[in-house]
Amino acid sequence: MENSPTALFDSYESDFKDLVRSIREKLEADVEDVRGEQRKAALRRVEMELDEAEEMVSQMEIEIQGIPQSLRPSYQTRIRACKSDLTRYKTLSKDVRTQLSRSELLARPGVATSTSDEPYGTSSDRTRLLAGTALLEDGSRRLLDSQRIALETEEQGADILRSLRGQREQIQNARDTLQRADTSVDRASGTLKKMIQRMYRQRVATAAIIVVLVVLILVVLYFKLVR
């Protein structure tokens, strides 16, 4: 197996071209030559091959990341060409499916071109037209309901965001209050420590005064009683 950095890219590109060739043959030849279920089966095969081709393009986009910068521009151009082919055949497949649906609708009994004076053809045509109109109205109603639900959801989301913002402000205020209370506690603790220290100093001073007084009293008594 070739180990060059572009080997896998080239392999995916080759597989993509094979798929595109098969898709083109089905859309331009097979689908025009068959009718009914065979035509639907051919279109289903086209859809599967389009999905495989899209996967090949995705793999090519992954592989191009490992290609040296000097070679990458030319491979990017090849990827763009593959994407263009994929888009073209997706559009062609969609057009063919639309034509098939239109052909099946026209092939149904009662869908022939009207030769009467009725503006909408036969009664069967009118029935289908009314059914289509009702379906469109139902779709419009569902769309309006979806828009209403989306608006309600948006309003609820806005209310939730406002509530969360208010809660965040309350938490911030509570945290600020706790910080202020902590500061006040620290100040009070410092004040108490100073008061206790002052009290101890006062006790020491009082005790010293008492000792001095006792000594003086003893001295006075000594001089009076002894002498």
UniProtKB/TrEMBL annotation:
Task: Please give the InterPro entries that the UniProt record associates with this protein.
Answer: SNARE (IPR010989), T_SNARE_dom (IPR000727), v-SNARE_N_sf (IPR038407), Vesicle_trsprt_v-SNARE_N (IPR007705)
Q: Which residues cross the membrane?
A: 204-223
Q: What Gene3D superfamilies does the record tag this protein with?
A: 1.20.5.110, t-snare proteins
Does Manganese show up as a keyword for this record?
no
Report the superkingdom from the record: Eukaryota
Task: List, alphabetically, the GO terms of the cellular component aspect.
Answer: cytosol; endoplasmic reticulum membrane; ER to Golgi transport vesicle membrane; Golgi apparatus; late endosome membrane; SNARE complex
Main location, first listed in the record: membrane
SUPFAM superfamilies xrefs = SNARE fusion complex, t-snare proteins
Where found? Membrane
Keywords assigned by UniProt, alphabetized: Coiled coil, Membrane, Protein transport, Transmembrane, Transmembrane helix, Transport
The way this protein sits in the membrane is described as: Single-pass type IV membrane protein
Domain (T-SNARE coiled-coil homology) spans 128-195
One GO molecular function term of this record is: SNARE binding
Biological process GO terms, please? Answer: Golgi to vacuole transport; intra-Golgi vesicle-mediated transport; intracellular protein transport; macroautophagy; retrograde transport, endosome to Golgi; vesicle fusion with Golgi apparatus
The UniProt entry's coiled-coil ranges are 24-63
Q: Which family does it belong to?
A: Belongs to the VTI1 family.
The protein's name in its UniProt record? t-SNARE coiled-coil homology domain-containing protein
